[in-house]
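INPUT
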Amino acid sequence: MRMVSKWILAFGALTAAIASNGQSQAQQTIRVGWTIPAEESKYWMMKRPAEFPNLGKTYNIEWTQFQGTAPMTQALAAGALDCATQAPLSLSNGVVGGNLKAYIVAQHVFEKPGGFSVYWAVMEDSPIKTIADLKGKTVGISVIGGGTQGPFNMLLKQNGIDPAKDIKLVEVGFAVSEDALRQGRVDAVNMNQPFAARAEAKGGTRKLFSLSQAMPNIVHILEACRADFVDKNPELVKAYVRDITSGMKKALANREETLKVVNEVLKAPIPVLETYLLKDNDFGRDPGAAPNFPAIQKMLDIYAETGMLPKLDVAQFKHPTIVAPIQ
Amino acid sequence: MMSAATLLKRTAPVLACVGLLAVWQFASLVLKNDSFPTAIEAIRAVPSILTDKDALINILASLRRMAIGFALALAFSIPLGLMMGRSRAVAAFFNPLLMVIYPVPKAALMPIIMLWLGVGDVSKTLVIFLGVSLPVIYHSFEGAKAVEEKMLWSGAAMGLSAGQRLVRIVLPAALPEILTGCRTGLVLALITMITSEMIARQSGAGNILFNALDMGQYDTVFAMIIIVGMMGICLDAAFERIRARLVRWSEPQFDMPLSFS
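OUTPUT
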């Protein structure tokens, strides 16, 4: 029995030693969560660090890739990350359910008027012509309870459809949405880039409605940092936000190089990226990576209206000085 | 001159693989589904992964974590299993704990472990450790329990202490069973190595697989599945060779091949 205790103690000590080592390193380094796609400024920082004079000299970044924004919210709330990509809904869920306090320091992509907006597609020969025709149909959505569902629910309600009762909502990831539609597994499904461009090139599908009909300037992903981390390390976070601002400028100024950078991160062929990335049929990017707080507030209001969140004020996410653009 | 039976025995694993690939190719051609590439398309994507420097670094990072998790699990589980097999008190204490942990999918623990130990290598290695430990503990326990009492009495009569009896009698006698547990653990290490990278990752084979899945590059997804499968076959064959050397004395006389070794 004494031997067993020794083993347990030794293992516990080893685990604690390794874990505490990781925490002590966090003092000089920002631990950043990221995901794919559509974070070009961060991809530039990862793949072209020499373009950022402070990166690797005055501060370091420990990059961790996540599968979506929701796990990053958990990691932020647990203190396992300092900054991360977030969607307005996942961040707010962290605030409401996880006691997370965070600042929105930059913005990655949004739906610019005339640009790409996440849309629901049906087959060209489908009898579904309007949103009202979705009644009784099977409809795909990338994440049930995800960021797109608020505006989606709102559009359905405006057209006399109860999202909870009148449709069969199923989760279909963006990567397989075209397949699900063509195979007849769903009657309508949401489309995002680059899969929308691929489906459009193939033909046979038709746009039914897009999120921009619910509201313009929808913010899809932004950059958020834990409030306690920002308050303790304001200069460090400023340097990081300065580099995000600079990364966004570089991404927009040199499309050819951005295609190469994105290809290195996503491993998606350049000819595929060429069809949409930073073109008119892509999401919008603010040249200074500035968060659109009024648009985020409107999204929070929609989530509150559709019962997905309680009423929240975007002001709680705004730091007085540390926000992009920082030159 | 090789007999037909010997030839069939030697080529059976290859024939099984070819048969599986043929079924895959046929099913893909019939289903005509973009998310289900043909076997030939997937095989064609394998060299591009294995010749890419970044991809190799990713795969090696996963294998490093797997090796650490596997080694730590063996170092912890074999002594624990042996002690459980020889001491009712130890078994009574640990058995209920193991019964609770055993059925829990280890990858499902990842979000919780991530909150405790962060998103780095430690949490992924712990998931691998948990995946490997349980079968090794169970088989070590069963192996130690089956050791004949009279052998232990003889050892005691010859002046061996309890610790010496555990190392010099129980461990060798239980070795065939322990190695069976290790073999199961090796496969589980490979599975948990990939699943531990599903939610958060800095490097790894899962990086290639899950990124390709997100981007709808299904030939790469299936190529990675082939590569992971090949890694499993190679590791199992290497382990089986080591096992055969260590416990040749306990091998049955008839020959029924169960692996690619």
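end of record. Residues 41 and 246 of chain A are 8 Å apart (CA to CA).
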